[in-house]
């Protein structure tokens, strides 16, 4: 499933303004302003100026909060987003409730307390963010994240992301979970992306341990018989369709020849034998092919049922031909 751009010029805009450059501009702006955010429960609050507000919006970090302040715009960052800006990009400082800036280790331990699986979620988040994918919360789709190729205003999300860690026995461990999740992803035109985070024997004591984690990507889609047929079956089905078309063509041709032959028989020399003098006329040329000129039994009424047998194997589009044949048979017998 490829990207679904929102509008004709959306793809061109995305190519002209790549996400990697936007994030680089945001990183430089935060470094120059010595930006500092503050912890607030399970989120991080950041006050941004006009320039940083635009860059945070374009880079899709956090969500704006409506306040009465006009000179500042507040953004609410998720734990993974905030730690990515702080630890991976080194462009944001985060202070605790005591207004003292926390170091990477203290911040890591704090976020682990707030979110048990934070180390694995952060590794999955940073894994895709470093590949310039935009990640947003996926709670409304029953997943952990949704991944966008660029800004959500330009393109729809392509992947519904679920993060699985070592010893995770809670999700996607039975087939019914897979079926439900895949059907849901298919109904919203997304591909299910499973990120298996393997700690490789390392713990989660410090953020440096996460650098030794490995991430395995696995996409799961619903199997469709119509799209997964092998070449042999596809060719057989194609041959059946072709054969049906040939049969239909033959039946139509036979009907035309039958009608034409019937008209020729009505204008035969036997019917014109009583005409004498100048009104007598020669029989019209037979419309049948040369090989059938002397075989007028094809137009005999008793041959019509055999034609019905050929027509019965055709599609419903030939039902009108049956009606015409029946009408012709009644007229011909009279």
TrEMBL record:
InterPro entries in the record: tRNA_intron_Endonuc_cat-like, tRNA_intron_Endonuc_N, tRNA_splic
Positions of the UniProt region annotated as Disordered: 267-291
GO process terms (BP): tRNA-type intron splice site recognition and cleavage
GO molecular function: tRNA-intron lyase activity
Domain tRNA intron endonuclease catalytic as annotated: residue spans: 121-201
One GO location term (cellular component): cytoplasm
Residue ranges of domain tRNA intron endonuclease N-terminal in the record: 38-98
Domain of life: Eukaryota
Matches recorded under Pfam families: tRNA_int_endo, tRNA_int_endo_N
Biased composition, class Pro residues, residue ranges: 281-290
Protein name: tRNA-intron lyase
């Amino acid at each position: 499933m490829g990207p679904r751009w929102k509008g004709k010029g959306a793809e061109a805009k995305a190519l002209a303004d790549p996400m990697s450059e936007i994030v680089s501009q945001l990183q430089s702006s935060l470094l120059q302003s010595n930006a500092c955010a503050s912890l607030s429960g399970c989120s991080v609050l950041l006050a941004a100026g006009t320039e940083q507000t635009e860059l945070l919006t374009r880079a899709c970090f956090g969500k704006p909060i409506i306040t009465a302040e006009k000179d500042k715009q507040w953004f609410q960052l998720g734990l993974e987003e905030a730690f990515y800006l702080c630890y991976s990009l080194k462009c944001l400082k985060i202070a605790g409730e005591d207004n003292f800036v926390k170091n990477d280790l203290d911040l890591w331990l704090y976020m682990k307390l707030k979110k048990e699986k934070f180390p694995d979620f952060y590794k999955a988040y940073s894994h895709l963010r470093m590949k310039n994918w935009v990640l947003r919360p996926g709670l409304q789709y029953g997943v952990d994240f949704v991944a966008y190729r660029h800004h959500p205003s330009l393109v729809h999300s392509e992947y519904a992301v679920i993060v699985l860690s070592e010893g995770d026995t809670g999700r996607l461990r039975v087939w019914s979970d897979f079926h439900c999740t895949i059907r849901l992803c298919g109904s919203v035109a997304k591909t299910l992306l499973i990120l298996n985070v393997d700690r490789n024997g390392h713990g989660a004591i410090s953020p440096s341990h996460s650098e030794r984690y490995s991430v395995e990507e696995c996409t799961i889609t619903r199997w469709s018989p119509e799209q997964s047929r092998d070449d042999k079956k596809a060719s057989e089905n194609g041959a059946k369709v072709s054969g049906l078309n040939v049969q239909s063509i033959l039946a139509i041709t036979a009907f035309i020849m039958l009608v034409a032959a019937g008209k020729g028989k009505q204008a035969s020399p036997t019917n014109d034998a009583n005409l004498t003098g100048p009104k007598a006329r020669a029989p019209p040329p037979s419309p049948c092919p040369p090989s059938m000129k002397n075989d007028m039994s094809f137009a005999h009424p008793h041959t019509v049922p055999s034609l019905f047998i050929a027509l019965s194997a055709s599609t419903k589009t030939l039902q009108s031909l049956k009606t015409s044949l029946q009408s012709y048979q009644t007229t011909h017998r009279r």
